[in-house]
Prior knowledge:
- The structure is a single chain.
- This protein is mostly beta strands.
- It has two domains: 131 residues, Metal Binding Protein, Guanine Nucleotide Exchange Factor, Chain A (Beta Complex); 111 residues, Domain of unknown function (DUF427) (Metal Binding Protein, Guanine Nucleotide Exchange Factor, Chain A, Beta Complex), CATH 2.170.150.
- 0% of the residues lie in helices and 41% in strands.
- The chain contains no helices and 24 strands.
- β19 and β20 form a beta hairpin.
- It is elongated, with a radius of gyration of 21 Å.
- It starts with 7 loop residues before the first strand and ends in a 17-residue tail after the last strand.
Amino acid sequence: MGAFPELRYEPTAKRVRASVGGNVVVDTVQAWLVWEPRRITPIFAVPEQELLAELAPPALPAASVEEHAVAVRRGEPPTSLDPRTKFGKHTCAGEELDVVTAGATVPRAAFRPEDPDLAGYVVLDFAAFDWLEDDEEIIGHPRDPFHRVDIRASSRNVDVALDGVTLAKTHSAQLLYETLLPVRYYIPPSDVRLDLMEESPKRTVCPYKGQASYWSYPGSGQGGNIAWSYDRRYPDAAQIHGLISFFNERLDVSVDGVLQPRPVTPWSRPSPPGAL
């Protein structure tokens, strides 16, 4: 964490492929994971000589990019940038470039850092391309080798309530421990009051767990998109497939009768039930 203000990089042994519109942009086993200064999550840098596309000076002016800053330690100021901060917000010196394929030009989707250790490499905008690690699709952002997700079965009594209404009660939760995030309690649907909740159109992705679908609790003004469940695309997260978790930042969660403190994270603010 002390290195967050610095440009960081780490080689990966995985075969990495990126494509856009069916056109392969790169296919390499020489990729690096790169964290620009203050970035929490990595992106891929690939050898420029292995690109199957052209790089060109940007044809369009740079757009304004909103920063989403968060604190990674309790009591510290929110200076680190979470994945909601788009690629165009660069925090180290370098050159932005368009990626030109046979079918399309992807504006400012490449960045050539001014760092001698990354000479000959360009960083690619993860959101602009479709990605494979070996033969498996990856979504959201590349997985961080220094980030862990551990899931443990628990027989502790977990109660979830909002505005005094119990929304879930179980002694069969799966507890998900993830680096930099609060513990999440994944609960069998049979122990959740789904009759009190409504399905939401909101969808998000996590590179470690898959795509999440959401529920809202219309009985409260604080109940928009308050719970979620992941699909089955990643066998790594099989223990939580089909289970439902709640934002403990915005509800009252009790474990063995003890009310847990509400953590402060980027998800502490409620969203409207229909919001995406």
